[in-house]
Amino acid sequence: MINKSTFAFYTFLFSVCISFSSLTAQENAIYEVSDGSSMSKSSSKKVTQNDRADFYELAFKLHATTYVENNIIKKSSNSEASVSKLTFKDAKSFNVLNQSIKDFNDVELITIILKNENDLNNKLELTQDNGFGNLKYIYIKCYFKCNEQQIRGFVTSDASIRVFYKTETPS
After folding, report:
1. Which among 132, 163, 135 is positioned nearest to 150, based on CA atoms?
2. Based on the number of CB atoms within 10 Å of its own CB, is 85 exposed (0-12), middle (13-18) or buried (19 or more)?
3. Which one has a higher pLDDT value, 37 or 77?
């Protein structure tokens, strides 16, 4: 017969393990589009880990952000700070980049929200020639099931720009 305190302890330990495993599983939901060369994966493993921390810092912490929706640019409340994040709330507003590229020279992260598979038809080309000299990361949130091949077809960028994507279900 099991002692009641021992049973309670094992129940508590089991619930902690389940909670911890669900927390770590959520972090693995962000995928990086690989460049396809095995050389870059093996030679820059330590740099990749540091860059992933930098990506998380930019993506999930507060920074000066400009939002674009329905072809309208909405600046963040802190307009004096240089903008380090650019967020597209729809995929139909990419032509804004052609109009005001000079405003985005300091952008390090572009976040794009894709609401359905039709948004993948609005291709995005981002290179250093477009005026994004400091751009390091592109983060794509799909509100549908997407894969690496679809993301590769959707965005074209320089090799130095890392592309991350995640499948989310909005509530």
Report:
1. 163
2. buried
3. 77
